[in-house]
Amino acid sequence: MFPNIIVWGFFACFLLATQDSNLKLAFVESAKDICQAICETQDFQNFTLTCKKELLDILLDFIKEEPLDALNTALRPQAITALAFLSKLKPCLAMEDIRNLLDQSIKSLFPLPSLEQLEETAGDALKTESLYSCSMDALRKLVTSIVEDCPTPELMVEMFQLIDPWFTVSDCSRERALQASSQTLAAFQENFQLPDGENFQQFGSLVAFLAPYTCDGSFRCRQWAAQCISCLLHIQAQTKVTAEEEEEMLSACCDLKAEVPSALFEASCRMAKVVSVHFPPDQALDFIEVILEDLVSGNEMCAISAGRWLLTILWDSGSAMGAQVSEILDIFYSRLPTIKQEDLRQVLVEAVAAVSHFHLDTVIESLFCRRLPMDSETGELWRSLGKDPSQALLILCKLAARVAEPSSLEAPFSSGSNDSVEFADEGPLKATCAIYEVLSVLHTEEGIQELFPELFCTLLKQVSKTLEKRMPFYEGRRRLFLREQHLSEGNPCRLSVASLKALVLKLTTDPSLAEFGEVNIWTSLGDPRTHQEGASLLARHLFQNRLLDQKIIEKALPWMTSESEKLQLTGTAFFSEAIRDPMLGERVRLKSILPLLMKRAGDHHLGTRQMAIKGLANVLLVAADKVKQQKRTIVAIFLGTLYDANVVLEGLRALALVFPHLKRQDVGFMFKDISTKTTTYLSDFDAEIREASFHLFGILADLPKFRYRTFFAEQARKSLVPLLIHQWDPNPKVSEACRAAFLHSVPFLAKGKLRVHLEELYTTSSLGLPNLRMHICKQLVNSHPAMRRELLKKTKAYFQSRWEEIQIRALELSDGVYRRVLIRFTV
User: Fold this and answer.
1) What is the rounded CA–CA span in Å between residue 42 and residue 60?
2) What is the C-alpha to C-alpha distance for residues 277 and 288, in angstroms, rounded to an integer?
3) How far is CA 264 from CA 215, 231, 299, 350, in A?
4) Tens digits of per-residue pLDDT, 173-183?
5) Nearest residue to 745 via CA among 728, 759, 731
6) Which end of the chain has fewer beta carbons closer than 10 Å to its terminal beta carbon, N or C?
7) With bands split at pLDDT 50, 70 and 90, how would you rate the model's confidence at 326?
8) Where is the MROH2B-like HEAT-repeats domain (predicted)?
């Protein structure tokens, strides 16, 4: 009872005394001395101070009354020290009372001006510095006293909640907040013992909160922050911290004295490397949530440091974070749109890349959850995954497997407009877009060459599948579609073509594969109307650049027998040109491909039929000696095309291509039918057909010694009018082809001296073309009077031509014939 009597007597004296400042200080010092003396007794824990509450209230009132712009007396530090001793006495304080003690003590110290400013305003700088040091030391004693009595994680949370508001832009405020944090953690390090096998639950969040300040602009902030990290490390690891780690932490702490930013970041990262050894993976989410707040703070140095710590922890401890990876990625994705500063955005992007090195499948799945069209952030994330060449190749393999996943049933291919709307499969299309992004940052060719056959076939197949399809439809966008009918959502086939182009251009610099030129392969490939031309041209450039190998052939060959019309078209078009590769000319492969081309030549799909005809022509062109038994059959197929208006152009071109390489027995009696049908197209409405027919007619006329010369002479005579008139065809290519055909036909139109005369006249005459034609016509009419009626009859048919030039030439020709007739009658 004796201490209580003394305290109550002392308390009564105070109530009777005046409120003089010196008396206040004396009272506070006496209270401190009494409480300290009690605490130093052996059995003070059994002692209960009955006036503890009243004494606490008085001391707190004294602290509140102290000015916040000056530090003139020792009352403040003495009062806080008295609270430290008083708090240890019974009755024990409730958490609310503890919180109030700490809060009032912090509020009396932290708002003070900086030490430099206090010294400037005070008369005695040394005294001010001493008072300031005593004040912060008093706070340390208070924190230590409270922690000693209640070293629980809950108390730590309470204390940091009180300190947190003082991490402001003010250097002195941050310094005091960090110093108080260090005091708190040091007290916990001394008094808190983790159970074996457990982790300190606040370790991840506190490291994330404090670590960025190791690169603060203030030297004192950096030192206090380093001490905080050291304390946290020992609280978490206990005795597991090795001597090497202790030395590394001390060395890094010393290096934080530097003023060069790069040296500070390097030292801070070294501390992060040590911390990562003892980092509990189950706290990764807490760590990331907190450190991302520092990443967007206004302090640039701390933000950069936060990014370095984040990446270091992810790279060093990421392999053990599997249980939280999905949530971690969600946090990164949600934060990415809110960060506008490019270097800080890159931290998040690199963080995703770091996670992918340990949990690639999870990262890929998370990116596949993002909708199409692919936004810039998603593209940026895919590119970040592709910057590591070894990982990029693995990703490409996985993406190729995604693209190749079985698709939904497709509608029949129409190669044109269709009222039905068909949407591309979302999964394969996302993977296709991802391939484009990964390829855009991959600069090594070695790995791509190995993957090229699989990737090429996968992407070309995807191009085929997405022809005439629209972007996947999301229910959530229905209103948007209704409100904005002209919204552009992208073309799935165009996206597929872009990925295929990126792949091919990685291995070749062929200028013909560029965006410019008379025929743009990539534009043709993505257009349903010209897809087959694009596919065949692409095949040609592959073997020209030695990129067409056996693996591609094996993967693409089944397309020609696919149930998909689009894939049949793509496969047939591809092999129609690929067949020219000498490698495919080998008997075994040719034996597999030729029957398929012959079958597709009768396909109901027009484009497939056209490409099969082109392919068969190339077979006869490059491997005629290996298909001797099939030559007549192939020629018969070509003959059949002349009776089909849809493929007559391909048939004419194919025959013109192969006839010089055929023997008489390869054609046989079909020569007559081919010649006859060719003449029917000499005046066709389509300029391409006219050109092709004149070209073929000239080739037929130029064939050496064959038994149908008499027959062909009759065909040439019957075709004299178009052979003359179309030399003035509106289309220059037709005119040129007609002129060549006429020259080759001269031997069948005249004999002996007349033939020699006409050939020489046609090739060397300086006469204008109309006069030359009239001169030739005069020579022929003179030689063959019976041709007059036939010439006039056939010329008359051209009077109604849609082309004015043709009408004029027909009239000139008729006039010439009539004039010659009149001359003969006159004579």
Assistant:
1) 28
2) 17
3) 6, 20, 15, 21
4) 999 999 999 99
5) 759
6) C
7) very high
8) 6-147
pLDDT tens by residue, 586-619 = 655 788 888 999 999 888 999 999 999 999 998 8
How far apart CA 147 and CA 98 sit, in angstroms, is 10
Calpha distance 691→683 (Å, rounded):
10
User: What's the pLDDT tens digit per position in 741-777?
Assistant: 988 887 776 555 445 555 555 555 444 444 555 556 6
CB distance 722 to 775 below 8 Å: no
- Does the predicted TM-score (pTM) go above 0.85? no
442 in Cβ contact with 413 (< 8 Å): no
Residue 150 identity (one-letter amino acid)? C
Return d(Cα 98, Cα 159) in angstroms, integer: 9
Of 116, 168, 107, nearest in space to 139 by CA? 107
Structure tokens at 389: 């060449």
Stretch 570-583: mean pLDDT, rounded?
88
* pLDDT for 478 beyond 50: no
Q: Which residue has the higher pLDDT, 624 or 302?
A: 302
Q: What is the C-alpha to C-alpha distance for residues 528 and 505, in angstroms, rounded to an integer?
A: 23
d(CA 157, CA 152): 9
β-pair partners for 90 = 48
The amino acid that residue 428 corresponds to is: P
CA distance 421 to 268: 58
Tell me: the pLDDT tens digits for 632-646? 899 999 999 999 999
Q: How far apart are CA 386 and CA 403, in angstroms?
A: 17
Nearest to 332 by CA among 280, 385, 373: 385
Phi, psi (deg, nearest 5) at residue 371? -80, 165
CA pair distance 337, 470, nearest whole angstrom: 27
Cα separations in angstroms, 599 against 539, 574, 592, 670, 715: 20, 15, 12, 21, 33
Q: What's the rounded Cα separation, in Å, for the pair 645 and 638? A: 13
Report the b/e string of 309-343 with b at 16+ CB within 10 A: bbbbbbbbbbeebeebbeebbebbbebbeebeeee
At 48, phi and psi to the nearest 5? Answer: -120, 120
Arithmetic mean of pLDDT, 361-385: 91
Is the pLDDT confidence value at 485 over 50? Answer: no
Contact 684/803 with Cβ under 8 angstroms?
no
Task: Return all residues near 163 (Cβ < 8 A) that are at least 6 apart.
Answer: 106, 177, 180, 181, 184
Longest CA–CA separation in the chain, Å: 166
DSSP code at position 112: S
Tokens of 12: 């009564």
Residues counted in the chain: 827
Tokens of 654: 């194919």
Separation of alpha carbons 60 and 390, rounded Å: 65
CA dihedral 450, 452, 457, 463 (to 10 degrees): 150
Copy the structure tokens of residue 25: 């200080």
DSSP state of 600: H
Q: Are 142 and 83 in contact (CB under 8 A)?
A: yes
Give bridge partners of residue 48 from the DSSP assignment: 90
Q: Is the sign of the CA dihedral 418, 419, 420, 425 positive or negative?
A: positive
Instruction: Say what the pLDDT of residue 435 is.
Output: 96
The Cα 549–Cα 455 span in angstroms is 13
CA 630 to chain CA mean position, Å: 49
- Tell me the two tokens of residue 630: 């099939």
